[in-house]
Amino acid sequence: MVVNRLLKFYDNMKQPLLKPLLVLCLCLALALSLLQCGKQVKESGSAPDFTLKTLEGQEITLASLKGKVVLLDFWATWCAPCREAIPHLVDLYKNYRDKGLEVIGMSMDKGEAEAVRRFAKSMDIPYPIILAPEEVTRSYGVSALPTTFLVDKEGKVQAKMVGFNSKIAKQMAEKVRELISEKP
User: Given this model, what pLDDT does residue 7 score?
Assistant: First the structure.
């Protein structure tokens, strides 16, 4: 149905120079979506490991957090839904850190450590924040913000949530409780 509409639109175009441009745009969109297909982290698949430094200089490896439930939040200071999600993540962290939850903020802000540090302070973010390098975001298949991954005690991705709203907040909290209550 969508293809038929596109073909009809293409046939009825009055500007002949726009036709090749439309075809080029469609091909680029298809190519970009195909590139992302093989790079998605699959639920129940192993979470890609990383060794990175927090804004405070502490080294964190995902492998060192085995035995804990890890929430990885890919976000940016300029992202409105990310800003909306942060108070929820702070609450989750405060309520469940003593029960085995680790939250790591994976900031997508490029090369702006001091700005991210100021933002984190203004939002009272108590969990570690990392300036996520491009290779890490690629290995997780992040294509929209915020994107949140829940990694179980064995290092397997159990949930991927894209965006943020009240429904996602509820699902996230339920999944955290479920994963924390499981025995390793």
Answer: 57
Q: Could you report the per-residue pLDDT of 152-168, keeping only the tens digit for each?
A: 999 999 999 999 999 99
Query: In this structure, are residues 157 and 140 in contact, taking their beta carbons and an 8 Å threshold?
Result: no
Q: In terms of Cα–Cα distance, which of 44, 92, 51, 57 is closest to 71?
A: 92
Query: Alpha-carbon distance 73 to 70, whole Å?
Result: 10
Check if the beta carbon of residue 71 is closer than 8 Å to that of residue 176: yes
For 98-127, the pLDDT digits (tens) are: 999 999 999 999 978 999 999 999 999 999
Distance CA 93, CA 87 (A): 10
From residue 177, how far is each of 71, 93, 109, 183 by CA, in Å? 12, 12, 30, 12
pTM: 0.78
Among 184, 174, 41, residue whose Cα is nearest residue 100: 184
pLDDT at 24 over 90: no
CA end-to-end span of the chain: 48
Amino acid at 66: K
Q: Which residue has the tokens 């492998």?
A: 63
